[in-house]
TrEMBL record, chain A:
Protein name: Uncharacterized protein
Domain of life: Bacteria
Automatic annotation (TrEMBL), chain B:
InterPro entries reported in the protein's UniProt record: RNA_pol_sigma-70-like, RNA_pol_sigma-70_dom, RNA_pol_sigma70_ECF_CS, RNA_pol_sigma70_r2, RNA_pol_sigma70_r4_t2, RNA_pol_sigma_r2, RNA_pol_sigma_r3/r4-like, WH-like_DNA-bd_sf
Family per similarity comment: Belongs to the sigma-70 factor family. ECF subfamily.
Keyword terms: DNA-binding, Sigma factor, Transcription, Transcription regulation
Name of protein: RNA polymerase sigma factor
Domain (RNA polymerase sigma-70 region) ranges: 2-59
Signal sequence, renumbered to the chain: none
SUPFAM superfamilies: Sigma2 domain of RNA polymerase sigma factors, Sigma3 and sigma4 domains of RNA polymerase sigma factors
GO annotation terms (biological process): DNA-templated transcription initiation; response to stress
Length: 146, 149
């Protein structure tokens, strides 16, 4: 049967080791190590009071993980502040249809503030949960595609 | 990704370039990756776009009809490894004759074993279109691999 031939061909294509892949993957890794991503330094305070800087990418990654715990997906983050200071944020999130959005926004605000406090330390100038605005940008019924 | 690119482009060097570019693009865009599609689907989407970019840049899409006499003949021992290699060569030649979308759909379904929804996401189309293209691709490949029955 020709279908058998097609199945056999697909199976062979699936199981065949791609020639040269080992060398190519090494080249790709080498190239990726030379690629940089632009980031913004944010002023933070260590436990001993010393000033340090963390990138906005670290903040956003941590926010993404934290927000995901609330069955939400972080869409965009806008950090507010002059220069290297962060005095608030606007979080755009997508979530599931049918949830109480006001309550959810409060929860996101609380959990996001905890991330800021953990990563930035004592924030100067200080801001509270009211410094974090939540915008719901998308609602979905599919829990796998928030 | 490399396997997909190689079968889409039918060229090892082009596939290497495309996969490199795709990984670099993915790395740069990673902070903006929302995660509303699985990482694998997202990476295949980027790979597909890079492959299209490369084809547009380098050459016209292959459109000529090659005859079945161009296909490598199967060996005398159907169980041998040489036969499998020949079959893969024939598959590559047959795939190269398919329209781009049919080729992509067949590869993503039959080789990468993605669902219709995932394929639709990668190719920015609908599952209904995927079903139609897959059916046409199967007919086209069956015709071209007739000699391997």
């Amino acid at each position: 049967m020709t279908d058998d031939v097609l199945s056999r061909a697909a199976h062979a294509a699936r199981t065949q080791t791609e020639p040269g892949w080992i060398d190519i993957s090494a080249t790709i890794k080498q190239r990726l190590r030379t690629i940089t991503r632009r980031s913004r330094p944010i002023r933070a305070a260590a436990d001993n009071g010393a000033t340090l800087f963390i990138t906005d990418q670290v903040l956003i990654s941590a926010l993404r993980v934290a927000v995901a715990e609330l069955r939400c997906e972080l869409d965009r983050v806008q950090l507010i502040g002059d220069g290297d200071t962060c005095t608030g944020a606007v979080l755009e999130v997508a979530t599931l249809y049918g949830l109480d959005l006001h309550a959810l926004a409060d929860q996101i605000r609380t959990i996001a503030y905890r991330v800021f406090a953990d990563l930035l330390g004592p924030i100067d100038p200080p801001f509270g949960t009211d410094g974090i605005d939540i915008v719901i940008t998308d609602l979905t019924t599919d829990p796998d595609h928030r | 990704m490399f396997r997909y690119a190689r079968r889409m482009l039918n060229d090892q060097g082009d596939a290497e370039e495309v996969v490199q570019d795709a990984f670099v693009a993915a790395w740069k865009a990673l902070p903006d990756f929302r995660g509303d599609a699985p990482l694998r689907t997202w990476l295949f989407t980027i790979t597909g776009r890079k492959a299209v970019d490369l084809v547009r840049k380098k050459r016209a899409m292959p459109v000529e009809e090659t005859t079945l006499t161009d296909l490598p003949a199967p060996g005398t021992d159907p169980a041998g490894q040489a036969v499998q290699a020949g079959l893969l060569d024939a598959l590559g030649a047959a795939l190269a004759e398919l329209p781009w979308l049919q080729r992509a759909v067949w590869l993503l379904r039959e080789v990468e074993q993605m669902s219709y929804a995932e394929i639709a996401s990668v190719l920015n189309t609908t599952p209904t279109v995927v079903r139609g293209q897959l059916s046409r691709a199967r007919v086209g490949l069956q015709h071209r691999l007739e000699a391997w029955r």
